[in-house]
Request: fold
Amino acid sequence: MDKEIIKKIDLLKDKYDAIGQDLETHLDGLLHSKPMRYWDFIQTDALLNLQVQRTTHPDEMVFLMYHQINELLFKMILWEMKQVSHHKNLTAAFFTSRLGRISRYFDMLSTSFDVMGEGMEVAQYMKFRDTLTPASGFQSAQYRMIEICSTDLINLIDFRFRSTIDRDTPFEHAFEHMYWQAAGKDHKTGKKAYFLEEFEKKYKDELIRLMQEYNEINLYDKYKSLPKKVKEDINLKNAMRHYDYTVNISWVMHHYDAACKYLLSEGENTEATGGSEWQKYMLPRYQKRIFFPELWSEEELENWGITNLTSYKILI
Reply:
């Protein structure tokens, strides 16, 4: 028998001995197993049967699949974030590489809005959207998770309440003052909209647990905990700035522009399907969502989202 094969068998025996398993049993199982096929690994049949239309309008399928793709990309982003936040010996190179991956996913999300902006008929959208009410893109729990894993909670608090909240504030109280809460509350009575109530019934406990878990290991905290020399790594700082800008200005504005094409087609007072004041909720200049404020100049912070920068300054 080939020496390399004998060597691999010995390594397999060591592997299974270490977990109290019998190698021969596993080899017998291998004899009866099917070879891996693409459609089995990808679960193609299951994936392609997740699209269930609620109307007869063809472009609803575009809208549906586009948002499912977004959720898959959000899951990829959270997967990369977990690697950084739970890394025990974080280096600038590892941090930078994972931020690069995350930013590429968000770059895809930003440029993909043409799929909706140019890929659906306005007339069709304005009809099938009524069938989707009160569902709202606001209800993407994974996007809220990405925000929580990115930065200190204070940077996600409604700008009007930040001075009243600190690290000693109960997580549930902080949750009630997250910036996106304003999109689902009557600003006079404080009553929550139905779509916000339903979102919280399903995800509130999970999001609060995540807030607790990432309170001191979110991306911003991981950066601040690095040795000064590592924090000054220019590639890392540029990667963090790119991520911050891509998520909180570029992606948001692409989303806003796509929404404008459809929601303003019948007048300026058209509501989003969930009923939110979508223009004030989406535009970055209103809430100034910034993940890593330490890495931006006072001028950049002051003008965040106002000038809608087509690019930002690369640090050298």
Q: What stands out?
A: The chain has 17 helices and no strands. The mean pLDDT is 89.
